[in-house]
Design a protein that fits this description.
Belongs to the FKBP-type PPIase family. Tig subfamily. The protein is α+β, with helices and mostly antiparallel strands and about 425 residues long. It contains eleven helices and eleven strands.
Amino acid sequence: MQVSIETTSGLERCMTIGVPAVELEEKVTSELKRIAKGQRVNGFRKNKPLPPAVAKRMFGKQARLEAVYQQMQQSFFQAVQENDVKLAGMPRFEPTQDEDGKDLEFKATYEVYPEVALADFSALSVERKSAEVKDEDLETMVDTLRKQKAEWTATEEAAKDGDQVNIDFEGFIDGEAFEGGKAEGYNLTLGSNSMIPGFEDGLVGVKGGDETTLNVTFPEDYQKEDLQGKAAEFKVKVNEVKAASLPELDEAFFNAFGVETADEAEFRSEIRKNMVRELDKAIRTLNKQQVIKGLVEQNEIDVPSALVDQEIDRLRQQAVQQFGGAQQFDPKQLPAELFKEQADKRVRIGLLMNAAIEQESMEPSAEKVEQLIEEVAATYQEPDQVREYYNNNPEQKSQVEALALEEQVVEKVLAAAQVSDVESSYEEVIRAANQPA
């Protein structure tokens, strides 16, 4: 087998392979026998092999097509192994000589992984946030939990922050109703900031049965581009105002959040522990985002389009599953452009993280893996079952090991990078960690 490799552009390579005719003919003969076996042909006995000449006349073309494709695959992957090719994605085959009695020659076009030489970690600038759970954070959390279990009672009093109003509304821009600007029987908690600025403030003081008009402006960064920065008028009818009745801090309330106790101090202690775990995880998330940002900024690399295409397909599948996984819907109907930027970013990050792991000869730390499993286990009532699940499920544990390696990369970079520590609050850190990266 003769092999030559040339660079066509960027990460794309073209491999030319020559296969001796005798080697291909063996495959053609074998494939012809397979296809002809069991075929019923008028004039020939059932379950008896067809004469070779007849079999070749009837099935020779099909047998050669399949044999050539098999030979191209086999020869290509053999050449990949022998030439230590770092293949990224599947190749495209093109026979350039394919005639009976002659050597087979074909070209395989493919992409390879980029050679990544990482910039020194000390060149990275990283902002590292720090925070702690303060008493006022705990009080806010307990208050939030109470509001989650609030009972709503109709009132004739004027609505105030914290009250819930049931409203019908319709929005207009330049006198014209716009899509998505209408609702009936909508429950809105004042002060929740779930509506655009000015909307909830305009309903403070209303009573059941009132009708009012709100003049507001959509934010410049509103999710619907056609509404960004537009002035709007909302006509609102108030159907009902409800006041919240917060539950007592008693055993029933504690149990509702999985804390089996009647002691308020013990309940607060458990809530604080959860908040500390959440804060620690959020800080690690932000640190990871900062490190990744630095790696991307400091390391320009080519990204194989084949890997981006694979990631686009994964994102398409996730999108379909997120919206109910319609059985009759083909994910490939979703335009690739919707996912291309995100897919490119994911692949780029993956290549850089793998390069760091390889450069530092990292293996997943047993202590780090155990820590990550413990974090998950701590959120369940039966933590031992969670630990057993991961330890007895190699596939799931390998995912934890991959996360452990990523955290080890982050720690390695932070130890060498130019780090500026920034004091922050619990709420700011949690909010920032939940923002899209």
